[in-house]
Specification:
single chain, 279 residues, Alpha-Beta Plaits, four-stranded antiparallel beta sheet, 4 strands
Length: 279
């Protein structure tokens, strides 16, 4: 079931990424880095279409990745890269676009960045990526000993800057804006996907609350005794973490069992351990 969910998330990410690229990036000349940006630029200056260039470049980079890293090139990344390239090509054949969908470049940029960032984040979250300049960044890291993030930003910045020369200053500025916006959106989406709630419950009635956490939410809990400094009374502190969808149910249950319970709820973007994420 977990593998099926991961597979569905990965494929939905591919669809969102391809949709954002084909319907919003390519028609406007938004070259926000990556193979997509290179393909968009090359498609404008050669008789070969952007979709064909994306396919050619992704295949080429995957082969380079296998030569340099061997089996270190993730099978998930290979799958995502090939499926993404194929979907762009299918869109081009069956849903040809002669011009942008709207007359507002800023509106198109917003949709381009949202769809591609959410799609990329979904793939990253299951340990995959669309390949492309991710492989270039890993190659630069291997031979230049640079940080992967800096390598990726450097390579994408060079590609985005190319839009100034091919599509003009306005499109170039939009491309650079999209490049920086995407970095923040991807991080935000990944944090939102992994968002969990940490509960600290101080109560006089721990048994029913603990039973609900263990049997209904199927989560663990850590319990220890405490003394209320203000009242001087004995209390029990319950520590537990759960998914966002479970947090509302737990909060309502605690208040139903002990209306006077003191509850502290905080948000965490990463919890490592059984039932959550592995290292």
């Amino acid at each position: 079931m977990k593998k099926l969910k991961s597979y569905l998330i990965m494929n939905l990410g591919i669809v969102l990424l391809a949709t954002g690229v084909y319907f919003f990036k390519i028609p406007n000349g938004f070259s926000t880095g990556g193979v997509t940006g290179i393909g968009t630029i090359l498609g404008a200056v050669t008789p070969i279409s952007p979709a064909a260039w994306i396919w050619i470049l992704n295949i080429g980079l995957l082969l380079v990745g296998f030569i340099i890293f061997g089996k270190g090139t993730s099978l998930k990344t290979v799958y995502c890269s090939l499926m993404y390239s194929t979907l762009i090509y299918v869109f081009e054949k069956f849903l040809p676009l002669a011009e942008p969908l709207s007359k507002s470049p800023l509106l198109e940029l917003v949709y381009a960045m949202l769809l591609t960032a959410i799609g990329s984040a979904m793939m990253f979250n299951v340990g995959a990526s669309s390949g492309g300049t991710d492989i270039v960044a890993l190659i630069l890291k291997k031979f230049l000993k640079m940080d992967v993030g800096k390598c990726l930003l450097f390579s994408d910045f060079i590609v985005a800057s190319g839009a100034f020369f091919i599509f003009g200053i306005e499109t170039g500025l939009y491309s650079l804006l999209g490049l920086f916006a995407k970095a923040f959106i991807v991080d935000s989406v990944i944090e939102a996907i992994n968002s969990c709630k940490y509960f600290l419950v101080i109560t006089d009635k721990p048994d029913e609350i603990n039973e609900y956490i263990l049997k209904n939410l199927h989560r663990g809990a850590t319990v220890h005794s405490a003394v209320g400094e203000y009242t001087g009374g004995d209390k029990v502190m319950i520590h537990t973490v759960c998914k966002r969808s479970e947090a509302v149910r737990l909060r309502e249950k605690v208040k139903a069992v002990d209306p006077h319970a003191f509850i502290i709820i905080t948000t965490s973007s990463e919890i490592i351990g059984k039932g959550f994420r592995s290292v």
